[in-house]
């Protein structure tokens, strides 16, 4: 490890500036009630010595860390394999940086590590948290509630008994159900009659809502046309094989996301079936470059993932400002549901 | 935001357990000098109330956070675009999780945000830091030194005047120069005579060392056969075009990493040149699946990236244990240079 020189102390700064410890402390914590000429002298001494205030102590006074935790309730392998998360983080990173707030991404190997994440959140290291990709029965919401950290969720949380937060929950989501309906109606409009749905992970509300949208249009559907999957390309492949085994007359597939659609199209190609002539395919997300690089390019339901990340960060920061100002004007921030758009390419 | 119920206080735990505040505090911070029966009563009260100690206050006592920061000195877009970082994080995450230490990834939009990262590191939120992908003149080493945070570096740091740490620096790296020499010797052994090198970002020691290895073998090389690039696929494409313009007789390319080799091979294919018949290509990293999925599959210098991440984490944790135990046995941890291996596939 780098063995470092001793850190300059508050005392050293006070001696250099010719002021008391208390004055240095007040300047470091905002400068309230200190004469401007003294503030200037202290700042100069801080710069010259390279003094960095001990934030563990400082934050006990100011209660702000200028840092926001991001928790993705997936193993880190998935976080880096699914471009959805990178896009959402991009939006969050831009917004936090614009407010000079540090993005603190808490990575885990899986659900067993969530208690540790809860301890870190409770530990007074961040001003708030952005939490996404929650699954049913995830202990995180309960841990976050105990930690007392202001939180905005990405995607409507699926509370189960005992984990529900006591107050109003703020989240950012897209219109999963409406987007799914539009996709399936488009397939119906193309004259398709054996329309299948490959679901996402059904312990997540986004997957449940998209399935509900599919059912809204396809009332009394053959149950074999609904195959449960998990939002991954490999899951899409397995689901498509199952579909072809059970329903060889399938003529359209609405996949719960683009990665699943990509996996399904791979199997269709291997089986010598043409897209869209034999089987039309629609995805969800408009994940670039995936959706543009499938063969043929993928018709899909677009949600603005980066914008969702940006909005989550903005709602959280706005809520934190309200708390510190305590003016209460406009009340607490509300959840936001963003619209979706069907993007027409060649696959359906 | 989730408006949460008030957090249970230390006082509430003390009342529930029928002990003093001081006793609760001692138990929460390790239990030294408290009777086992009292420890048990306090623990039970903590569990029943869901009490979480305020770590900002607690860490002033214990000086440990069970959290390690990871700083990658690249914009977050690059962190998520280059699988090198995901692989290194995989090793780090496994090792930290095995020690129940939280991985805290500090993301930035670029170098302008490094001062903020320095403030977070100085703020008493982590026990140590793992820092990689440093560039020449990066302010991070100086900021880390001021922060006084024990640090292990990934890749030999390139200190410039004024940013050098005062004590010994611990880093994990691979034998960049030796690996490069082996690659170029292999090309010579194939009878190639116009061997080019597409460099990495020359403000990083890994790129400089690989260039040195190339020069070790190719003494008095035609300077037009060395083209500066940046470790990205797009950079590899641009460099290959420049090479073909200036040296149309080039018959081999040693690329500074696999992504660069991938870009170069794309241009060779577009220009109707065959790999390896017309131009042999060797990369560096053995980044899977990239190296296996190029056409033809890529001959490359393997470094064990995940293992490097694991080693960085292990050296840091070992150093922290030494500091807290203060036994001094074995001295401070030393840097580690891992060997490389030339992996023979079809491209050279």
UniProtKB/TrEMBL annotation, chains A, B:
HTH lacI-type domain mapped to chain residues: 8-62
GO MF, one example: DNA binding
Signal peptide as annotated in the record: none
Keywords from the named record: DNA-binding, Transcription, Transcription regulation
Record InterPro entries: HTH_LacI, LacI/GalR-like_sensor, Lambda_DNA-bd_dom_sf, Peripla_BP_I
PANTHER family according to UniProt: HTH-TYPE TRANSCRIPTIONAL REGULATOR GALS, LACI-RELATED TRANSCRIPTIONAL REPRESSOR
Protein name: LacI family DNA-binding transcriptional regulator
């Amino acid at each position: 490890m780098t063995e470092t020189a001793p850190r300059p102390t508050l005392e050293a700064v006070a001696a250099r500036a010719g002021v008391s410890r208390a004055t240095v402390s007040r300047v470091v914590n905002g400068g309230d009630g200190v004469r401007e000429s003294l503030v200037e002298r202290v700042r100069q001494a801080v710069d010259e010595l390279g003094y960095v205030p001990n934030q563990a102590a400082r934050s006990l006074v100011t209660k702000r860390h200028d840092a926001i935790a991001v928790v993705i309730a997936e193993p880190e392998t998935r976080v880096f394999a699914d471009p959805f998360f990178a896009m959402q983080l991009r939006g969050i990173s831009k917004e936090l940086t614009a407010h000079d707030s540090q993005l603190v991404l808490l990575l885990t190997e899986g659900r067993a590590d969530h208690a540790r994440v809860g301890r870190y959140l409770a530990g007074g290291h961040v001003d708030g948290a952005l939490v996404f990709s929650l699954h049913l029965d995830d202990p995180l919401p309960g841990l976050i509630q105990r930690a007392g950290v202001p939180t905005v969720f990405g995607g409507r949380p699926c509370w189960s008994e005992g984990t529900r937060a006591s107050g109003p929950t703020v989240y950012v989501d897209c219109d999963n159900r409406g987007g799914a309906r539009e996709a399936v109606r488009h397939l119906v409009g193309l004259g398709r009659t054996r329309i299948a749905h490959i679901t996402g992970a059904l312990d997540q509300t986004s997957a449940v809502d998209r399935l509900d949208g599919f059912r809204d249009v396809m009332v009394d559907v053959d149950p074999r046309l609904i195959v449960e999957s998990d939002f991954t390309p490999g899951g899409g492949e397995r689901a498509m094989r199952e579909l072809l085994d059970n329903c060889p007359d399938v003529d359209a597939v609405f996949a719960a996301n683009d990665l699943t659609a990509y996996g399904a199209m791979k199997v269709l190609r291997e089986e010598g079936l043409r897209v869209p002539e034999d089987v039309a395919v629609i995805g969800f997300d408009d994940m670039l470059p995936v959706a543009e690089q499938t063969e043929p390019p993928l018709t899909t339901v677009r949600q603005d993932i980066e914008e969702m990340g940006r909005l989550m960060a903005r709602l959280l920061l706005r809520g934190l400002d309200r708390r510190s100002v305590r003016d209460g004007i406009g009340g607490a921030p509300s959840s936001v549901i963003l619209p979706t758009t069907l993007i027409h390419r060649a696959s359906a």
